[in-house]
Amino acid sequence: MSDQAVLHVKGRILVGPDDVRDELWVLGGRISYDRPFGTQDIRTVEGWALPGLVDAHCHVGLGPHGPVDAATAEKQALTDREAGTLLIRDAGSPSDTRWVDDRDDLPKIIRAGRHIARTRRYIRNFAHEIEPADLVAYVAQEARRGDGWVKLVGDWIDRDLGDLAPSWPRDAVEAAIAEAHRLGARVTAHCFAESSLQDLVEAGIDCIEHATGLTEDLIPLFASRGVAIVPTLVNIATFPQLAAGGDTKFPCWSAHMRRLHERRYDTVRSAYDAGIPVYVGTDAGGTLAHGLVAGEVAELVTVGIPPLDALAATSWAARAWLGRPGLEEGAPADLVVYESDPRADVRVLASPRRVVLNGQVVE
Ligand SMILES: [Zn+2]
Q1: Structure-derived torsion over alpha carbons of residues 260, 261, 266, 270, reported in degrees to the nearest 10
Q2: Phi, psi for 250 (deg, rounded to 5)
Q3: Which pLDDT does position 206 carry in this prediction?
Q4: pLDDT on residue 4
Q5: What is the pLDDT of residues 15-25, one digit of tens each?
Q6: Are 155 and 173 in contact (CB under 8 A)?
Q7: Dihedral sign of CA atoms 12, 15, 16, 21 in order
């Protein structure tokens, strides 16, 4: 786009849940609400505009067997872009994707470094696999490598026990979370089961991924501490399949996974009703496909979350939580335009009319 070219977005600009405007302008890649002077070359896009969607649990540079090459990582990021995801919180990647930051045509990524798991207690080749004595040092290392987040694997199957079990003793997570906070990073953890949650929350964790084990007795603790959850329901949908694979060797684990799956909607609904912040995350990368953000928003509506709040969980509220701007004056023009009102029916998110990233219309 030349310096003189201007983009005009008109229709309904959903600046916030209660702030709807008729038009915005894009100059030099940034948003303006003042019509520019002069007779510039103007391109118009019309429809319902939302801030670029947020996928708060996504993995770029990660495939089913571990790290992937840059060409594959680029394809993952482009697939997310097509779906309207323009801001990713990367929830752990063994690849160095820092090169993405130099690309104006790829979604913005907030990294959590590489997953930190207990030895042989996670998917092979994904995580640093370590023992509790080294947790503080690894958390410090990943806090420095990331963009303000660190990702722990909080629980996983313990093969001797034959069931999900916490990865870390309480004193280790207390020290690790304190160290991350001292370095200015927030901490999140993968947790499927109930048993790791109280220690992590009391140790000061900022967010829990999946959170399928969030029971009624733990909900007030999360709510009072303001600990967010990213349920990744499109991933939880695969639990019955995972459970079937474990029936002969780990029947307790399989039964546990099925119970967590069966109550998943009640779990997320109770969390939402208690005021726990809930954000959209797909868990793309690893085994799940990229570009599923619309499906996750639809799942939150199925849970019983009102459509406006389900939208906020991937737009206004998610951006504020991650410290990134939405459609305010002067912000980078990252937005998605739809042909009908997403507040009336979130299913429109599945087919963006136009995606605009850094002021450029994606063709
Ligand atoms: Zn994940």
Answers
A1: 50
A2: -130, 65
A3: 98
A4: 57
A5: 999 999 999 99
A6: no
A7: negative
What domains, with CATH codes, occur in the chain?
Answer: 6-51+326-362 (2.30.40.10), 53-321 (3.20.20.140)
What is the pTM (predicted TM-score) of this model?
Answer: 0.97
Residues 295 and 284: their CA atoms lie apart, in Å, by: 12
C-alpha 176 to ligand 1 mean position (Å) = 20
C-alpha closest to that of 114 among 153, 81, 77, 171: 153
- What is the distance in A from the centroid of ligand 1 to the CA of 341? 30
Q: Report DSSP state, residue 125.
A: T
Q: How many angstroms separate the alpha carbon of residue 102 from the centre of ligand 1? A: 24
Of 340, 350, 337, 351, the residue nearest 292 (C-alpha): 350
Residue 69 and residue 60: Cα distance in Å, rounded? 10
* Nearest residue to 171 (alpha-carbon basis) of 198, 138, 205, 132: 132
* Alpha-carbon distances of 205 from 113, 141, 186, 197, 209, rounded to whole Å: 16, 18, 7, 10, 11
Specify which residues 152 forms β-bridges with. 116, 189
Q: How many Å lie between the centroid of ligand 1 and the Cα of residue 92?
A: 7
**Residues whose Cβ atom is located within 5 A of ion ligand 1:** 91, 283
